[in-house]
Amino acid sequence: MTQSRQLPPLRLLTVFEAIARHRSLSLAARTLNVSQPAISKSLRDLEQWIGAPLLHRNRRPLTLTEEGEVLLIATRDGLGMIADAIAQIGRLQAERDRSLRVSCSIGFATYWLMVRLSSFGVEAPDIGVSVMTTPHDAAPDAPHADVMFRYGHGRWRDGEVIPLFQERIDPVAAPDFLDGASLAPDRLDQVPLIHVDVDDASWRSWNGYLAKAGLTRKRSSGDLRFNNYVQATQAAMAGQGVMLGWLSVTGDLVTDRRLRPVGLPPVIPEDGAYYLVVPARSTGNTAVARFIDWLRRQVADMSPVA
């Protein structure tokens, strides 16, 4: 790029605008809190950059040359646009500090986050929260999210990773399923199992659970299949079968006695827990900091990540 297409330093334009506004070098120096010699040098540097005189120095008050008038119009327009842009950025930053965009799976949002989020609203009524759901707990970076709940190994590199709690799998059913009796492992062939089809972890399936628990099932018995935990959980609460209960999805439902463990052995997933991922773009966001502080208290009594 040639010099004719480059812009002079912003400080030179700022000095020029002050001189043109006051029609005085001394008043411009006082306004900008610099010495008059410094103002004079900046004016000379700008004129050298432009390649034309900008002031009639032999007139009092100072007057602009024709070239100076042209530059003043552009300078005021440009500085005004910059000031407006900075003000808009300030407003956007203020809005960011009053809003929070959270990404998590639909099951986690429905059965873990939603039942707790009202307490955050009480604690931080000035912050608006938007929840964006994803199909899977290990979903990649959500481009517009300020924070992301994520399940997995925790070794991600797309943000600060904050451990929350260890997951636990415990088969559950409605309280009156099997008349409230425990399900003996040898009766697995006689009851319908509720499956959730996912593609990111084989042990999330019943086959994976049975293998880890050391159990076998020779045949199915009217099983049901869904592609998300919300539908599967509703089916379980309706007494339609036994589902793999994840602490993050069914833990509160068990506490509220809307579901119950059926007596099969629980499994602690290896290399799997819940984390909050905070991308670099959220650094300095006041709403994010307040949410993290609240969240740490929410998980304080849960099983820590190993």
TrEMBL record:
Q: Which residues form the HTH lysR-type domain?
A: 8-65
The protein here is known as LysR substrate binding domain protein
MF terms per GO, please? DNA binding; DNA-binding transcription factor activity
Q: Report keywords, A-Z.
A: DNA-binding, Transcription, Transcription regulation
What family is this protein classified in?
A: Belongs to the LysR transcriptional regulatory family.
> Per its UniProt entry, which superkingdom is the organism in?
Bacteria
SUPFAM superfamilies according to UniProt: Periplasmic binding protein-like II (SSF53850), Winged helix' DNA-binding domain (SSF46785)
Q: Which Gene3D superfamilies match?
A: Periplasmic binding protein-like II (3.40.190.10), Winged helix-like DNA-binding domain superfamily/Winged helix DNA-binding domain (1.10.10.10)
